[in-house]
Amino acid sequence: MDPITAVSLAASIVQLIDATTKVIKYLNDVKDAPKDRARLARETTSLLALLTDLRYKVEEANPTDPWFNGVFSLGVEGGPLEQFDETIKELVKKLKPGTGIKKFNKILLWTLDKNEISETLTKIERLKTLVGLALQNDQLKLSRAIEGDIAEVKNNTRETARGVAELRVGQEDDQREKIHRWLSAPDPSLNHNEAREKRQAQTGAWFIGSKQYTNWKTNPNSFIWLHGIPGCGKTILSSTVVEDVLHHCDHDSSLAVAYFYFDFNDIEKQQHEKMIRSLITQLSMQCASTPKVLESLFSSKMNGNQQPMASELLMALRQMIQNCSETFIIVDALDECKERQDLLTDIEEIAEWKTGKLHILATSRRERDIEEGIEHLVNDGDKICIQSTLVSEDISTYVRERLQTDRRLKRWQNKPEAKQEIEETLTKKAEGVFRWAVCQLDALVNCLNLPILRKALASLPKTLDDTYARILEQIEEEHSQNALKVLEWLAYSARPLQLKEVAEVITVDIEGNPRVGPERRCPEPLDILICSSLVTLTTNGEVRLAHFSVKEYLASKRIQDGPDSIPSSCGTTGLFQTNAEELLSADNRQSPTPLDQNRFIFHEKPSTRLARKILGLIQTYGQNVVTRDNTWLSKAKFTPVIESQIESREAVRLILPAFPSKSANKLDKVLGPLPDMGEELALAHLNGLCRNIADIYEPGATVTILSDGLVYNDLDFTPDEEVWNYTEALRQIVLAKGFSTNIRFIRVMDLLGLHSSRAITRDEYLALISECRKELMAQFGDPNFDFRLEISRNRDTCMTYSGYKRFLQKDLLYTDYARNASSKTAYRKICKKVAADMITRGKAFAKLIEVKCPDYVRLSIHPSTNETKLSIPLVPQELGKFSMTPWHCAVAVDVNGSFKTAHVSDLHETHDVIYSGSRPFYFRERSALYDLGASVELEHLYPCGLIVRPAQSAGPISILDINMRTLRKLGERQSPIILRGFSKITERGVFVEAASKIGEVLSWSPGKVERIFNHKMDHTSKDINNSGFTIPTHFNSIVGSTVNGFQCTNHAGDERHSNLKSYKWPRFELFTCVNTSTQGCGDTLFVSSRRLFQFLSYLYPVESLERATWKLQNDDLGVHNGLKDLPLVVQYLVQHMPYSCWHQPWPVTRISSQDKITAEGGNEDITKAINDLLYDRRVCLRFSWENGDVLLLGNTAISHAGAPYLGEEDREIWRVRLN
């Protein structure tokens, strides 16, 4: 073929390409087109790619090549190219808009009928086939491949494929953009970029290099939960993970990444559905074309004129994940989502898809609703706590980098010694709190020389709260009101505010005239950002609070304990009453926060003050899941209720709907149908609450238990008789334990008026159950109740519903529900239906209580927001975990004496079942320490302690028959150990012999045995110690040691306090009661360090308590010049647990001079919190002696005290001190 013919062929192809391009443009712009338009556009675009490829092959190839013979046949007169050219020109004519008025009236309207479309599609398909065949006969490329130039062929193939993909993407971009606009997802890249800017190169290397992370990236269906305290750098670590995963997926287009940052500063990024929309949008952008499932969803919603339901979005997300070979999802700050239960439900559903292709990583604080929501989704090894030891290197790197690059700190860049001091001090004192280190560096900017720097480093605030308080305190008086006004607006704004908007805030003065004064506006808007460490200015001009912990501090009651300079300049801003309210949504407007509250003490009635004190005590029993400072939102509601009862000198009335019946699952969850140790502990816990109230208000309190078993038992196949037996057994426990003064019962049928007398027979009860349920719904049910609307609006209901769904899946496992379900999915749906029915009945039940018991403080066993009630765990667990109720689990006693709740199926391998009579009662951890060498029975006491008795079949046993060394080890963990019912010791020599089997008997001034008398005193004997008065809580180390000649040594082998002067003190004490009066004449009080720190940790982590010290001065006890730097808490290395070294002042009645005991280093608030807990019945065992009792006390585990002895007979107790 001659060159001229070749050029002519190429020109024909170019002309056809131009016409085809016009058609594609018109097809994309045309309005009101049927679905066939999309297919025509796709096919035309596909042909365009082939024609383009053909054009370049014709232009580049040699015209003499035999390959042209096939290609030339396409361009002959009347051939395929000419035929299609006529078709395409006709198509252009029909689609092209008119001009002038015609153009206005005919803007790209669809003018083709179905026959025309079908004919055009047929011609396009035929030409595509012919061009494709011609291209496959590429002799030139084939010869090159034979010569070994395979690489070039592959490269050209990839380039061609990429060009085709780009053309297709161009065609679909508009449609995809419409769908993305419809989804309206917030952009998480803004948060990601902000976090990236804050991190250093090696930040998070400890995690990226860990085995858990490597396994997460490679294992199918993997899930990691990273949790940590506020300010530990979770978001920074999330950005590190995102970057690493993006790099991991960069070279494989089949891998997909999506991430989301929940953000307290942006209301759109606090909604669970917005997260789903964002994930979908991100995955869609990584697809070569718009996913079919998205197109289908969009078109099903009238092409975007309607919004999809959350379930439809989840379904779309699932299909998109299944279309990827692997998908990585990273979600940061679950705790900053306002719809947390909905979010946890979403995460649970996503994780349970089990596609084998999904990897999820989530971060949050360790809050109990989050932990409970995902605990069954994440393996224990993949629940990773971001501990201070792990983050320290990240903090050190950050400090080092900022010292090098921050121009405000440049004065130290050439001072290696100063830089090292800053780095080491901040890294050490940060204790893993990244945010704390950031704030301290901000403050060090103002240190102009080395002495000032070192003074600042020596007086750094200890906590984030202390840091924020100091920042506020240092605001100059003339700027403080503006600063606090700005902070308040930032804390409660419904959306992020621009700098110019924030600048307008200070022009508003609600008490001024005029209220808006332009003269108050700062000429330079940046000047309003006075608290630079508390606020941040983003690159797009938004002003935000710098961290979630800042908002929490500003909105919490903790600020009331901050610097006194704040209220004098703050006053009441009244911002929420101004015309600036348009910046605040209705959901975010709140009553004045502690920032507005003047912290002066106002005059109030004594009854009001006492009511608030009682409610404060009740609140300490509560745990909620929303407000992180444990605020009881409904406290104000109950204050007048209790105040009225105080003025009438009545007992405070509490009501608790609970104790229905044991779970229907008697195989996996509970030990049987009757109450066991779990219920006994729960009742003791409630009784202790009432007794604690009686300590500050003489009439005390009562808890009325309203059993809800008959409300629900027909839904879970629990027999009516079982409900009766369970509740009657509860009443017997209350009587047997002596709780009846404080714990009462009432039945639903009594409140409904179906039964009037207090007593009811079994048959009467069973006959009324069915009628009771009907009457409950008839009187208090809402016929218009919308379950779905309720759980979407009421967070308490939503949380309760989530809890129901979880426990029902195990509760109903052996019922007809499970046996008749066709699949696991069907069974889960049944459980959801039962849960919904329970919610419906529960709303009627709650209404019954509200109407019939208006003067009661409402308690609840369900996690809640505490807006209408107070949630209390009946068997309190470790910090952050809301315990299971006793009727849904068994209680296990660990070897250290702590109680935990768990399902029986989780305990059999590590614990033994312990019986009470003939029925299983609780689990006890397997340990050789319970083998005491004799046949004995053990009774665990609440809140601490253990009674050891001879077994009924054992006959008379002496304590010398006990393995005292094993008893000693047990005493280190579970003090006090009481040996009761053994042969009575009447000789001191036998007592010393028994004591010597435990350890070395220490001699002291009274001799080896100290005799303690109550009531009658004999001053002629030097070994008589009268204790007929109140003895404060103390531990036997400091006081008395110098008087009795004990030698100086370190604390219990704790090397960290080797520099502190202390005295060798008895590790154990052994007592025996030789004679006593009747019980209740004077208890000995034992305070468990383990229990003390369990409840104290809600306020202060053990790590912060270990830094606290105290000092003592008392001339009578030989401590003339005072003991200083005494540790408040020391780690007992033998058991790896903390013990308390606090010592309350001795009364003047005991010695002639009063103790002078003070906390050091600003720790007064800590010691007050300890003193408040010392006699709390959750911590302190009140022990009544019986004749012959032998008691072993491990001084590392227990402090002790004594109540006044009021008996009419002598009480004599012997004591030996041991090492």
UniProtKB/TrEMBL annotation:
Residues 203-365 form the Nephrocystin 3-like N-terminal domain. GO terms for molecular function: oxidoreductase activity. InterPro entries: GPIID_WHD, Isocyanide_synthase_DIT1, NPHP3-like_N, P-loop_NTPase, TauD-like_sf, TauD/TfdA-like. Residues 481-557 form the GPI inositol-deacylase winged helix domain. This is NACHT domain-containing protein. SUPFAM superfamilies: Clavaminate synthase-like, P-loop containing nucleoside triphosphate hydrolases. Pfam families: DIT1_PvcA, NPHP3_N, TauD, WHD_GPIID. Residues 958-1216 form the TauD/TfdA-like domain. Keywords: Oxidoreductase, Repeat. Coiled coil: none annotated.
